[in-house]
Write a structure and sequence with these properties.
Elements (H helix, E strand, L loop, with lengths): L7 H37 L5 H32 L4 H34 L27 H36 L3
Helix pairs in contact: 1-2, 1-4, 2-3, 2-4, 3-4
């Protein structure tokens, strides 16, 4: 890729593989963000608590990054089919730059969210429950979700999101470099 100019067939192949990977990563990231929201954050996020607000903003940004990653993948696939139009090259350049930056911001936000959650031992995640001890919460009827698994489930989903965001950064930057090379910039 960086060793010089590739022939059009090689560009097509690299763009197609990268585009497909971005589509898969973007969809998985979108699903992971939806699961985090559905299992925990819809009960937790309030404007009064800075930590829960951070969770909500980070999760929303993760969904936006997933949509940008999917768009970048679609653009790479289109460009793999039609190498000629400069507009497609510029679209890939713009989308891959936005996708990589947004994925980077989400990765950093997820790291902070994981750190906050580990630091407060999941108390913010259990805030909607009247019982703050996760061991006692299953006997309580005052919790809108199963509190025994919300802490570990949320952390596991965030860890998966971290991996997906890192992959999104890597492959979006790869598309960015391909677009720069195709535009001869």
């Amino acid at each position: 890729l960086a060793s010089g100019h590739l022939d059009p067939g090689s560009y097509r192949k690299v763009l197609m593989k990268t585009g497909l990977i971005l589509l898969i990563v973007g969809h998985l990231s979108f699903i992971t963000g939806a699961l985090v929201h559905g299992t925990a954050l819809r009960f937790v996020v309030t404007a009064r608590d800075a930590t829960s607000l951070h969770y909500g903003v980070t999760n929303s940004a993760s969904v936006i990054a997933a949509l940008l990653t999917i768009s970048c993948g679609v653009s790479a696939l289109l460009l793999s089919r039609y190498l000629g139009p400069a507009a497609l090259k510029w679209a890939l350049l713009a989308l891959s730059a936005c996708s990589s930056l947004c994925c980077l911001c989400c990765l950093l936000g997820l790291l902070v969210a994981i750190g906050l959650t580990l630091g407060n031992q999941g108390r913010v995640l259990l805030a909607p429950c009247a019982v703050t001890d996760a061991a006692l919460a299953p006997v309580s009827r005052e919790c809108p979700f199963d509190p025994t698994r919300v802490y570990s489930s949320t952390l596991c989903l965030w860890a998966a999101s971290l991996l997906l965001e890192a992959m999104g950064i890597f492959f979006s930057v790869r598309c960015l470099l391909l677009a720069l090379e195709l535009l001869r910039l």
